[in-house]
User: What shape does this take?
Amino acid sequence: MPENIRILLIEDSPKEAGLVERYLREAEENFSVVHEDRLDSGLARLAEGQIDVILLDLDLPDSHGLETIRSLHAKSPHLPVVVLSDRVDRDLAAKAIKDGAQDCLPKSNVDPDSLTRCVRYAIERTHRQLVESTLENSEARYRGLVNSLPVCVLQKDLDGRFIFANEAYSEFTGHVVEDILGKTDFDLSPPDVAEKFREDDRKVSESGKQFRDIEVNTTDGHTSWVEVIKSPIRDAHGKIVGTQAIFWDVTERQMAVEALLKAKDAAEEANRAKSEFLANMSHEIRTPLNAVIGMAELLLDTSLTQTQRDYLKMVHESGESLLSVINDILDFSKIEAGKLDLVSKPFDLRETVGDMMKPLGVRAGGNGLELTCHFESDVPAVIEGDPHRLRQIIVNLVGNAIKFTEQGEIDFDVSVDSRDNGNVDLHFEIRDTGIGIPDHKLGTIFEAFEQADTGSTRQYGGTGLGLAICARLVDLMGGKIWVESNVGEGSSFHFTAPFPVTRADRIPHPRAAARIQGTRVLIVDDNATNRTILDEIARSWGMRTQLAADAEEGLMLLKEAYSVGDPHALLLTDVEMPGKDGIDLIAATRDIPNLKDILVIVLSSSERPTTRKRCEDLRISSFLMKPVKQSELFDAIIVALGVASPEDENEVKSIGGLPKIRPLKVLLAEDNRANQRLAIALLQKWGHDVTLAESGKQAVEHWERGDFDLIVMDVQMPEMDGLQATQAIREREKEEGGHVPIIAMTAHALAGDREKCLESGMDGYTSKPLRIQELHQAIAEFFSAEEPAKAQVDSNPSATEPQIDWSHALRACDGDKDLFFDLLHLFLEETPELLNSLDKAIEESNTEAIHRSAHTVVGSLRIIGPTEAGETALQIEKAAQHNAIEQATKLSQQLRNQIDTLFGEASQIVEGRQTLP
Assistant: This one.
């Protein structure tokens, strides 16, 4: 009841109204009174609200008798009304209450107490009636709702007696509701069934938790199933007072489930049979298809008319396309049939991924896209797993990203999800800015033969098996794969897999890494992801980095750094940038005296001959293809800074510990006599038959006349260099068929030169001076090998401490001292002639001859190992490139002095006056 009771008094007699108002003020209750003398003004006052009870005179100027009550009740049906009557009349009071009043008080009996009682009674009675009415309506709605439900609903008390049952339950059991109420399950069901129901009820009432089950009913002679939900009934205080059950017939659904399970078993058996059949048929198809392709290649090697050749090429190309489809199907069918097994071996994750990203980067660059590759710092270097299958997954996902992306970038990231007991869970993510995948396709994209781009007018080709194969391979690895995508915004493919970590990471070139710490480097790239990756890598080596988003900002930072006395030692710049590109930036630095000698490493997504030529003209240190590997970037930096050469810290091991390769017929193209002698001796020592060509032109002629298993090709040679010779051979092979492996052999060990060799058509790469293990490994890539034998290296104690480390040259000869002495004799015999040729070229100011002679001297000295004389000869070679005749003249005298020292020690070793290390 409200603390302040607001009363509307409708009374036309001022005297009686004043008396009532006085009584109300005298009452103990807190009453507030509003007086009106007409019904219409009273109704208006009601419209304003804020009234708790009405005191009403029945005889008003504008209304008379019980009609007055009806008017008020119509306006405010839930507002309590107390009638003030002029006479004591029980019939009138009964009629007033029937028509909506809560009480009738004769005016002759009015006093403060009676008014208080009547007002209180009216308010309480109205509230009680309202609550009862609400409960009745709620009960009626509940019963109406429950009785209309197509499911059975029943309620029991804690003794198991039915206290409610709906019409559906009555129909289900065949009993009318009146016969059910008060009964128990034992009155309606067999004892064993009733006992189960009673036990379920006890579980619900004791635990207070919902219970759900599918129950079998066999009481009427046939089997049926019902799904039941039982829950506790609680009173207003939360006490459990009974149980409620809702159940419905699921016989048809259950029979369908059992039928589906049987069908599923049959389908899985049929699918296994299909997969085994598909695997066998794939092999059966490949056999004649290989014959078709092989015979087509043989026929292309014969004399044909142009029409015949065109037709045959179409047969060959169609066969290759069909073989690619069959390979996809074969991989998929192997997985489906459970016949694909993963191998496990240690491999360098960054090198493996970096190598596969190179051709993908070229492909992305050709489409105007940026491909980035990023490894978190805690990702281990060497893990154990199946590198071939991991490569297959990554190439497929990145290749898809390139195919379905028209502009923007593709980012490949590797991070660690978790580590546990020597194992690491790696997370691979491939993000693109491509066309995206519709929501309705996300759930089926990894299923076989599914593609986001479907229909007869598909823009993008493919079998639809690539992602299915990826999903199966990830599952075989014990990982998971998923995709997130928005149409028009791009997609993110993720997969995880566990790998054992085989050994602790090793810091490459530890001495060089320590020496580049603190070096200041400026990184210029318009792609924010690339800048972040390069910054993270450089900082991990202790370098001081500064970043610029374009050439203009980069040039400003270079000038600013020089002006404050903290210049950059190295510029690392992208080539392809909007507006002023990387080449323009380098050219600008070369025109500024304070910046013209800054060391530069260039990164590019594509290599155009004109770009390479401009970079050479601008004296860049290295040209690297994106996405750049961490190892090749490190090598490029230490070489550019003059800290070390890539081979300085590589340990050269004896060939005896490496796998043996069958005897091969090898064509060696090399113009330097010392390198000829070393390479021939090593190859012959390994059992190979060697034919020598002293120029690229001779190499092509020998290849045309002979049948060689392998060509080892020097890059820089007179008449025709190794790149041109390789291109000539590859062009001829296109016409005549076949493919002979060609391994590049060059003194330039930078990553850009490696890519240049491979793009010219070469298959492998090894740097000078020749390193036993590297050369052997390059050859082993193409030919099967036997189990390795134990390595044996001869060693003799040194009698004297030489100034030159001759052990490098001895290791380069695989510990063969006879070969080593032959090379020393050749060095003593050939070098004076080379120096004379160099002096003559300098005297004639013939920069081309200076460059060629100095390069030959560098090649001869590399066999000995890193020497001051080799470094000086390299400087002469570079001076010739820039027409610096005067600088070459000064350096030539320095070179002679250094070589004199080498001659002295070499002579002592040859004459036996100094022992080998």
Notes: The first strand starts at residue 5 and ends at 10. Residues 452-459, 645-656, 787-802 have pLDDT under 50 and may be disordered.
